[in-house]
Amino acid sequence: MNSPVLSALPSDASRVDHGPAHAAESSMGALLLDSGKLTPESAERVLRMQKDLGIRFGEAAVRLGLVSEEDIQQVLARQFSYPYLQKGQANLSPKLVAAYDPFSPQVEALRAIRSQLMLRWFARGRRALAIAGVTPEDGSSLFAANLAVVFSQLGEQTLLVDANLRSPRQQEMFGIKPRQGLSDLLAGRADLDVISRVPAFVDLSLMPAGTLPPNPQELLAREGFRNLNAQLESRYDVVLYDLPPFAAGADALAVAGRAGGVLLVACKHRTRIANVSRMAEQMAESGAEVVGSVVVEF
Question: Is 103 exposed, middle or buried (0-12, 13-18, 19+ CB in 10 A)?
């Protein structure tokens, strides 16, 4: 797999496509009304300008200064079933660029990675993939969260599992209150009810890490984890496991082996190539196929 670099570049906020004409036009006004962006009176002003100038509804609304181009993008996203959030909306981490800034260069790179994974891994009938980094600073958890969002935006029923039972991050990333999760399920203290839907994205669910156990490696190495993975694969199109850092112990190897495939994440100017090579070798020895690697810059 090629290794696109996800750089923290400024978004291209000026790029606005006001979409195909009539099918979209008929509902754009209604959606802007429903969201409180327009009042019935202001909508009439827009309709008058639209008729007088022969332009699209969204363009007329922007010209009148009644809505922003970001508002129009948001409505188009709803019309074309491509969910994303405006800044300040929902309780998600602002670092989830796929949720808040879907037209930025780094999210374009994420979509390119998604396409390669669809062709090289999921098209082969595989459903689960582990995401691994060498250290906590490599950005693999943030990458996994953003990758889960872009898969859900494609309409794939996506489950993100926080398999880091030492220092989990996904619960905080998605603004979910502390609750039971993977560890409790593996210990027989919970069931699949620990999975939470992410309200802002109808095709995205999260299984948090749960109660931090004293024996994470042993829990993840149990046969029950293999059975759990089979259950999850039968329910979801895409199951992504956010692994604990490779440097923290053998936890990552246990999960990757059960998932069957692993994508390695390295941080530009931070991760040592020798450490990535060592991780790839040990992942393969554990029974996981190394699907590819990506370089991130967060």
Answer: middle
**Cβ atoms of residues 75 and 81 within 8 Å:** no
What pLDDT shows up at residue 64?
A: 92
Q: Is the dihedral of CA 163, 169, 173, 178 positive or negative?
A: positive
| Element spanning 132, H or E | strand 128-133
SS3 289: strand
- The whole-angstrom separation of Cα 291 and Cα 262 is 6
Which residues in 217-242 are b (16+ Cβ under 10 Å) and which e? bebbbeeebeebbeebbeebbbbbbb
Nearest to 127 by CA among 259, 264, 265: 259
Query: CB of 198 within 8 A of CB of 205?
Result: yes
**For each successive 10 residues of the chain (298 residues), what is the average pLDDT?**
36 33 56 80 89 89 86 66 67 91 90 95 96 93 97 94 96 91 95 92 93 93 93 97 90 94 94 94 95 89
Residue 25 has a pLDDT of 45
